[in-house]
Amino acid sequence: MEFFDNHKTLFRTALGLFVGLTIIVAIMPAINNQENNAPLPNYEPLSQEAYLGKKIFIDNGCVACHTQQVRNVDMDKVWGSRPGMPADYAGIDRTDFWRNTATLMGTERTGPDLTNIGTRQPSLAWNLLHLYQPRAVVEKSIMPAYSWLFEIKTELGEKDVEVVVPDAYRKGISGRIVATQEALNLVAYLQSLKQTPLPDGKTPMEFLYKKKEIPVANGNTSSLPDGKLLYTNNCMSCHQANGEGLKGAFPPLKGSPIVLGDDLELFVNIIMLGYDARPEYAVMNAVGTDNNLTPEEVTAIINHEKTSWGNNAKTVTPEEVKKIMDFIKLTSKK
Question: What confidence tens digit (pLDDT) does each residue in 257-294 have?
C-alpha cells in the first residue's frame, strides 16, 4: 500500500507508463511507416496552388464529409480504379513544423469519396459551379454553398474566371460571378486528386466481393457494357439524369442535333477531346481521354444517349467508334 500512498512514486510510474505506451503504440509505428513507405514512382507533388487549396479544403471542414480512401471491396470501385495502398498517402507532408496535416483519409462519406475526383470530374467550370451552388448541378445535394469564395463584379478583369450560373440561382445578382483565388486554389487541389498509376507490369490488388457483371446488349450491336451506368459515372454530373443539362451552364443531350445526327466522328471527337464551340455554355473537358474509356465504353455511352429521354436515333457499333478513336490517337501523336 506504500506505493499508492507515495504520490511521487505513483505519478512517476503513471508518467513512465504513459511515455512508454506512447512510444510503443504511436511513435514506433509512425517511424516504421515512414521508413517502409514511399510515394509511387509516378507520384506528382502538389503544385503551390494545390497546396494552398489543400489548406482551404481543411479550413472549411471538407474532411468531415469526404473520404480519400478506396477500400478493397467492390462497392468502392466507383471511387477509384484500384484499392488504396500506403504509398498513396506517403507524399502527404506536415502543414508546417508545429502542425501535422489533417486526416485527409476521412472517416465518413456524407459526400462522395474524393480519391480520384481529379480524374472523374476534371472540369474547372463544373467544380466552380458546384462550389458556388451544389444544387445547381446535383439537385438533392446537402453540401453547403461556398458562395463566400466568389465575388460579384460589374466588369471582368483580364485574369478573372467567370462562373456560368443558371438563372435559377442568380436571383438578385446583376453582375458577373467571379471565382476568387481561394476558389481556384481549392479546385486546383481537387483536380490534383488522382490515383497514381502503378509501375509498368505491376498488377493492382483486386476488389473483393465482386458482383457478377452481365453485359448489356444494345439493339442489334454486339454485347456492350452498361451504357446507363457509364453515363451516370462520366456524364450525368453535367448533363443531368434527364439529359436536359443546365440552362446557361451545360447543354442538353435530349433532342441534341449532335446526339441525333449521323456525324459519328464529331460525336466521338467531343467525348475524347472535349468541346468549346458554344459560348453560352461552359467548356467540356475530354471525358473519354481523361477517364481512359475503351471503344466499347464510348459506344455504350453514345447508344445510351441516342436512345434515352425520347431520343430515337440509330445506334452505332464498337468497330465504328474504334476506327475513329484510333485515328484520334494517331493524329494526337504527330
Answer: 999 999 999 999 999 988 886 776 777 888 888 788 89
| Whether 312 and 252 share a structural domain | yes
Task: Note down the domain range covering 285.
Answer: 221-333
183 and 257 share one domain: no
Q: What is the mean pLDDT of residues 248-259?
A: 88
The CATH number for 293's domain is 1.10.760.10
For residue 212 the three cell numbers come to: 457478377
Both 187 and 53 in one domain: the answer is: yes
Domain assignment present for 203? no
Q: Look at the pTM and tell me if it is higher than 0.85.
A: no
Number of structural domains in the chain:
2
Q: Are residues 328 and 238 in the same domain?
A: yes
Q: Do 248 and 142 have their domain in common?
A: no
The C-alpha atoms of residue 250 and residue 238 are separated, in whole angstroms, by 6
Distance CA 79, CA 23 (A): 35
293-328 pLDDT, tens digit per residue, is 899 999 999 999 999 999 999 999 999 999 999 888
Q: Alpha-carbon Rg of the chain, whole angstroms?
A: 25
Cell numbers representing residue 100 in the block: 501535422
SS (H, E, C) the chain: CHHHHCHHHHHHHHHHHHHHHHHHHHHHHHHHHHHHCCCCCCCCCCCHHHHHHHHHHHHCCHHHCCCCCCCCEHHHHHCCCCCCCHHHHCCCCCCCCCCCCCCCCCCCCCCCCCCCHHHHCCCHHHHHHHHHCHHHCCCCCCCCCCHHHEEEECCCCCCCCECCCCHHHCCCCCCEEEECHHHHHHHHHHHHCCCCCCCCCCCCCCCECCCCCCCEECCCCCEECCHHHHHHHHCHHHHCCCCCCECCCECCCCCCHHHHCCCHHHHHHHHHHCECCCCCCCCECCHHHHCCCCHHHHHHHHHHHHCCCCCCCCCCCHHHHHHHHHHHHHHHCC
Query: Domain check: are 69 and 117 in the same one?
Result: yes
